Fold this protein.
Amino acid sequence: MRLILSDRDVRIFEHIPAPVEQILLEQGINPLEVIVSRNGKLLSEDTVIQASDEVRIIRIAHGG
Amino acid sequence: MPVCSLCTEPAVVYQRYINRHLCGTHFTADVELRVADTIKTRQMIVPQDRVAVALSGGKDSTALLLLLQRLLPSWEDVRLIAITIDEGIAGYREETIQSAEQLTGRLGIEHHCISFTGLFGDSLDAFLTGRETQACSICGILRKKALVVGARQAGVTKIATGHNLDDEAQSVLMNVFRGDLPRLVRNSSVDSSGKFIPRIKPLSLISEKEIATYLMLNDAWSELPECPYTRYAMRREVRSMLSGFEYKHPGTMLHLMESKKKIERYCKGSVISESLRSCLECGDPCSGDLCQVCLLRQSLDR
Ligand SMILES: [Zn+2]
Ligand SMILES: [Zn+2]
């Protein structure tokens, strides 16, 4: 599974199938500080990710 | 794939505290309902109000303007305008101001812009040379003043800011860390003195993540730069600590807000809530001889 953290940071995640929340925690990311999408659609934290998925992680910047 | 608890669409959020999944449509409706409820129960907006949204162009104020615009038809004779403050932060403000202009243009909302250079004679960048570590407090004082000037010019009765639950909970904790009880209990949402324009925070019960999600779902999300001065700010440390706590112990932020409310109640009428005076220099309402802006000007030698 491809995990896109930014244009410059794309990781391959092997331990699948796994829920979004578990994937984030394994990357050291607090699920409250990001939103996660697959094919442009937002995912809830308990969505299970499969091997063929491409998942994008968007950091929520402070301010505004 | 998890499905919405209220319909059969795929879920986009899971609200852990009530064990509920929501689809995009139902999540959007939920946020709008909660904001409308906050405004109503705290009487933030009343008939004939002229409300100025402090619109930085960042995510929180963008969401606030969108939400208020949508809720507008449910209030009697209320008008909405937007005020943007250009502090003069190179490499950061240009993009957010552009985003603010596009948004107000698209929504057809009257938009005012006030710049630090026009009002105080120089940009924030210039004021901060050699004082970067004080960036947020200096900027905060000047921005507040600029907003009031803009609001007076526009003749509004309320100033609405995009502070969310995370911001508010961080502020409670920071005021405690600093031992600043007067600031902890200060309430600027009502004005009994007639001296200042009440400031309201309609998003104060919506979390940062919920705001980001709301924007994504409503095609209003854009990735904008983060203010370069945040790296000097204590808030940044508090933010990451507090969101760690909130994740491990859901409800922490709301509990902090409840604590603040209780302390406010106990302090009501006591000496801690200082009485309002007028600045000897400029006449603005303040708690000492001089207002924050005049004190700052003295120390900056401007
Ligand atoms: Zn639904
Ligand atoms: Zn003054």
User: Anything to note?
Assistant: Chain A touches chain B at residues 30-33, 35, 37, 41-48, 58, 60-64 (CB under 8 Å). Helices of chain A lie at 20-26. The two ends of chain A are 33 Å apart (CA to CA).
